[in-house]
Write a structure and sequence with these properties.
heterodimer, A: alpha+beta, 2 domains, 4-stranded antiparallel sheet, about 65% helix, B: about 250 residues, about 25% strand, disordered C terminus
Chain lengths: ~290, ~250
């Protein structure tokens, strides 16, 4: 263990820019990772909310009001409740349906003569399996135009989108890690050139390559940790700002921007990962460079 | 201790600066290394402290063949060699004490003993009041003594000094040579590269002479003709110097 700095690494300019670059990289990585984690959590919530449910949609009556064809609704409910595997089926009130439309049309903007379909929320028994196509045909017979939506297509597409965005975010994080490593390599090589004379003296006196490398890696770790923490603080402030702006929007479909424990864990790991990358990169760079000495 | 067999050295694609050097330094021997500027003295010393690899030939040090030894073992060999560089090569950001302590710390000595040992040696070379002074504020003579202290603090088996008296007056130079002779008496093999023929004449040690990259030996069996020690007393002859180089 180097008990003191035999090389004046803190006095040269090579490490001056490193914390700022690492801060920027960690900041970008934090935002990418936060986006991926929040989308993953949102898609998880959507999926769990929609799994085990189906929706039957009965077209609006000629008058436009959903509660004006109770006979049709009753017939559909009768079919549904007598289908094995369906635990419950309840029509949504007109107010509930309007509440679902309002995010797109604005609160109070739903016109009174707008044709509103009847939505029936169907709760399935756990692990229930039945023929949705046959059920859809049955419903069509009792209420022409009725559509049965098991959300499968929507969930599949949404999951695919979520997974793609997650993969892109992870690719960005990995690319940022590679860029950080390249930056440390450059800074370390510059440091090796600046302190070449002192390094030669240490080498001739009998210092092992790892002894010299330790001084560079401790320095790189310190700078990367400092920069990483700065990047994390800036990213947290940015996320808090975005969460505040998103909270003001009446958009229930927007992913929640709350900083959850898993998000915190992921973000807090980034400065540590940056420090680890910097430490290992500095060590490998120095040892490889010094291995060329006799 | 140190053996060169048909050693040649060239830098890059340039001409050979050392040619067919054959040399055997026995344990406890004391040699001067001299020759005109550009003859290859510093290059030969670099080969001796393993700062360079020869272009051809074999070097064995402490009974280990340098060409075949595992690179990880070289630092261990280097720690047994003390080097006084011509331009001192002190680390300016470290204090005098820390400069001299470097070999001990690199070798993993306990910090509690390092300061005492270094302070004692620096007092011995007349720098006891300069422990916390940094090299840029020292005179050349003081830097020279710090460099010498750094070279000998680890009690090396082989001491190599490149113009160790170049920056000091005659009296100080003789004091330094006297120190080297004392180390030699307790078993350290010493090689001193110098231009100073007057200094060499004061001692009876064999002289390695480099001319145009070739090494010659002058065994000089005769005792010194003039006083060698600072106290105008000739130094006692050290053992082992009969087994000198061959060229």
């Amino acid at each position: 263990m180097a008990r003191r700095r035999d090389l004046p690494l803190e006095r040269d300019g090579t490490g001056r820019f490193l914390p700022w670059l690492i801060a920027l990289m960690v900041y970008l990585a934090c935002l990418a990772l936060a986006g991926a984690i929040m989308l993953d959590e949102a898609s998880g919530r959507w999926q769990s909310g929609l799994t085990g449910t189906m929706t039957a949609q009965i077209p609006a009556a000629d008058s436009g009001k959903s509660d004006e064809h109770p006979a049709t609704i009753a017939a559909v409910l009768d079919v549904l409740k007598n289908t094995p595997g369906i635990r419950d089926a309840q029509p949504l009130t007109t107010d509930s349906v309007i509440a679902l439309i309002e995010p797109w049309l604005g609160k109070g903007n739903v016109a009174s003569d707008l044709p509103i379909p009847v939505l029936i929320d169907i709760q399935l028994e756990e692990n229930a399996t039945f023929d949705t196509v046959a059920l859809a045909i049955q419903l069509e017979q009792v209420a022409p135009g009725t559509r049965l939506d098991d959300h499968e297509i929507w969930i599949t597409r949404m999951l695919r989108l979520s997974q793609t965005i997650g993969a892109v975010a992870m690719t960005i994080v990995i690319l940022i890690g590679i860029a950080a490593a390249a930056t440390v390599v450059f800074a370390t090589r510059t440091g090796l050139a600046v302190h070449q004379g002192a390094i030669e003296v240490l080498h001739i006196i009998g210092a092992r390559d790892t002894y010299i490398a330790r001084q560079f890696q401790v320095r790189a770790m310190s700078l990367a940790l400092r920069g990483g923490l700065l990047g994390l603080i800036l990213a947290t402030m940015t996320l808090a700002l975005l969460a505040g702006i998103a909270g003001n929007l009446e958009g229930p479909l927007l992913p929640q921007l709350a900083v959850t424990p898993s998000l915190w864990g992921g973000l807090a790991a980034l400065p540590l990962a940056a420090a680890l990358i910097a430490t290992l990169t500095a060590r490998i760079t120095v040892v490889r460079t010094l291995s060329r000495l006799p | 201790m140190l053996r060169f067999q048909n050693v040649g050295l060239r830098y890059g694609l340039g001409p050979e600066v050392l040619r067919d050097v054959n040399l055997h330094l026995a344990p406890g021997s004391f040699h001067f290394l001299t020759g005109p500027s550009g003859a290859g003295k510093s290059s030969l010393l670099k080969l001796m402290y393993l700062g360079l690899q020869p272009s051809r030939g074999n070097i064995s040090m402490f009974n280990q063949d340098i060409a075949t030894i595992d690179r990880a073992e070289l630092p261990g060999l280097r720690r047994r060699v003390g080097v006084v560089f011509q331009n001192f090569r002190l680390l300016d950001h470290l204090s005098t004490l820390d400069n001299v302590a470097l070999p001990l710390r690199i070798a993993g000595a306990k910090e509690g003993t390092v300061r005492d040992h270094v302070a004692e040696l620096l007092s011995w070379v007349g720098l006891g009041n300069h422990l916390d002074v940094h090299p840029p504020t020292l005179s050349d003579s003081e830097k020279q003594r710090v460099a010498i202290a750094r070279a000998v603090i680890g009690r090396p088996s082989l001491l190599l000094a490149d113009e160790p008296t170049g920056s000091v007056d005659l009296e100080q130079g003789l004091r330094i040579l006297h120190l080297f002779e004392q180390l030699n008496k307790i078993g350290t093999t010493v090689v001193i590269a110098t231009h100073d023929r007057g200094l060499i004449k004061r001692f009876s040690h064999p002289v390695l002479k480099l001319e145009r990259g070739k090494l010659k030996i002058n065994r000089r069996a005769a005792p010194p003709a003039s006083p060698a020690s600072p106290e105008n007393q000739p130094p006692e002859n050290s053992g082992g110097q009969q087994d000198g180089p061959t060229s």
